[in-house]
Amino acid sequence: MSASVPRLLAFAGSLRQGSFNRRLIHVLAEGARNAGAEVTLVELRDYPLPVYYGDIEAAGMPEAVRQLQRLMGEHDGLLISTPEYNGSMPALVKNTLDWISRPTAEGGSGVGLFQDKVAGIVSASPGPLGGLRSLLVLRDALAKLGLLVVPQQVAVGQASDKLPDYGVLADDRQKTQVHGVGAAVVRHLTRAGATT
Ligand SMILES: Cc1cc2nc3c(=O)[nH]c(=O)nc-3n(C[C@H](O)[C@H](O)[C@H](O)COP(=O)(O)O)c2cc1C
């Protein structure tokens, strides 16, 4: 594939109706689009996955894994808005990454789908720290998979006040920062000439 427009896959790490992170991922996607990216925003509830264990894989890879692997292969990077559960990323986010990392339908490396791609991460929580600790863990996990995670990140606290709706962040300074995360991802991909 060759394209000069960076293509980013975006998702929120929550299945919850009214999820603050689903509201926030729209803001991050907007920032990346404003900076020139094409963003594919998916809902993980459309890709229902069991908790990973090898017997399920041995019995036949779930179709949702194949779909997510195809999507990852077609994009140059990831945008994720994650909740924080007990100081870490939710099982949903880790489970999704773990499934994608399994061998592809063509027998290629699933981990290879992430290699040298670029990620931007944000978090939201009703609490004062905004899920900051989940970002540290997620950053580490993404780096382990071979993604370059841009240093800019934003944790939006008091999310019930600040994120009243999808794509609405009622704190102008933080909105600029979240847009800045998306722009940084685009900048890295454009500089590196790394688009698919
Ligand atoms: C099991 C569990 C653990 C949680 N742990 C934390 C936590 O460590 N820090 C935090 O800020 N919020 C924590 N929360 C609250 C979440 O931030 C809150 O449920 C948030 O709305 C989840 O994100 P969402 O709105 O995108 O679904 C926890 C919630 C659950 C269910």
From TrEMBL:
Residues 7-160 form the NADPH-dependent FMN reductase-like domain. It comes from the Bacteria. Keywords: Flavoprotein, FMN. The keyword Transcription regulation does not apply. InterPro entries: Flavoprotein-like_sf, FMN_Rdtase-like_dom, NAD(P)H-dep_reductase. Pfam families: FMN_red. The keyword Transcription does not apply. Its cofactor is FMN. This is NAD(P)H-dependent oxidoreductase. It comes from Lysobacter niastensis.
